[in-house]
Amino acid sequence: MNMEHPQGRLVVVSNRLPVVLEQNAHHGWRAKPGSGGLVTALLPVLRDRGGMWIGWPGTSVEDPDGIKTALDSASKDAGYTLHSVPLNKEEVHKFYQGFSNEIIWPLFHDLQSHCSFDPSYWRTYIEVNRRYAETVARHSREHDFVWVHDYHLIHVASELRQLNVHTQLAFFLHIPFPSLDIFTKLPWRFQLLRALLEYDLVGFQTLRDRRNFIQCARTLLDDVTVQGKGQVVTMHAGGRTLRLGSFPISIDYNAFMKHAASPEIAALASDLRTRLPNRQLILGVDRLDYTKGIPERLEAFRNALLRYPDLLERVRLVQVVVPSREDIPQYSELKTRIERLVGEINGQFTRPSGWVPIHYVFRSLTRSELLAYYRAAEIALVTPLKDGMNLVAKEFCACSIEEESVLILSEFAGAAAQLQNGALLVNPYDRDGVADAIYTAFGLPPAARRTRMRRLRRTIREHDIFWWVDSFLRAAIAKDLSAFPLPPDYVPQDSFTETVS
Question: How far is the CA of 460 from the CAs of 30, 209, 235, 418, 453, in angstroms?
Fold first, then answer.
């Protein structure tokens, strides 16, 4: 595709800034560079175009001058400008913990029983989105390209239009978009839909997410038409014309692969394997969250040990859980449930030889530790109940240097649309099905493993995080949307075929 990117500066707007603020003993602030694929991918674009990043600095401490000084200093090092949106404790509670994570997060992951539809959350959500919009309006120019990220900030475009800002606005939803029957449970469904129509380009992770959005718009709004097919289509609704695209987010494949191949990681992985002789390592890595399906995965592993005695003393599940939101009762209860299950299963199956079936890790891993686990594991068990994409699956494949590993992947992860040709797809609610997949992966011959893993790695290498940024920015201005066919290995999630017998 020989198309230019949108002209003008790139203005990235997200819930959090790409830096971590630390307050020292003398009450001064220091901004440390953040990490992650999104920052890595957007950094060269922001530097080339003189862009900016707008977001919350991560603290409710009121020290605007000190925070501004720290961000100005960090901006010089980053090569682009950082602007903060201050939030007080009540706003953090009602906007972030409340509307964003007690309403949108569970609802969009098909778990509406976890929702708390408090009207005060909605009011604060709108107020905070307006403040973000005011910050964008204050610092942006007419020809800038404003790219808003994720469910926290759906209303930014609507607020910007009310401020008479008519620059090009784009939005990417990093989590799933729910089906009509789920979405209609949201008391503010009409407002949220109309807010999304104020963007010029709306990106989703998968075709299913885009299809769900179109179905909701057609059912709940008048005069909605959609034209085109492929990765990007055109929608006419509410007197506006916008583009809708499917842009599966990815990772910096080369960075993961090269680090995983380094002597340091090779030595750590070798040490792990030495401590597990004649046993296949099954790996699960998840943030503590009820969408990740960790209890369901543990029950399926128990099922596999019961139904397939060949696995006894020949596999070990390493389940890493990264702490998250432990101060919220639902998450504290989830942690207790996981630990109880681990104790039960270990008590049921531990052998006098010293074999313990589950090694449980509850802490954040360093990057080196994580990559060593990826490289040492023969099987990855990635089974969320619902996920926008799931980058753990892609990171595992990128780090599988020997290409003799197997990926077991939930069909409800967005990544399944891209990776279904090499992964063993499972329904995470199906204990027998996941247990069967574990046994199938355990017995898969090396040649079959290599064939599958090579397919996975090729797909991720060709569609990495830089492809994602490039395709999104090009889609904003392309005159001919037929230049955006779907990747040949990209399959709609309702077209999956059975992969485990």
Answer: 36, 20, 29, 9, 11
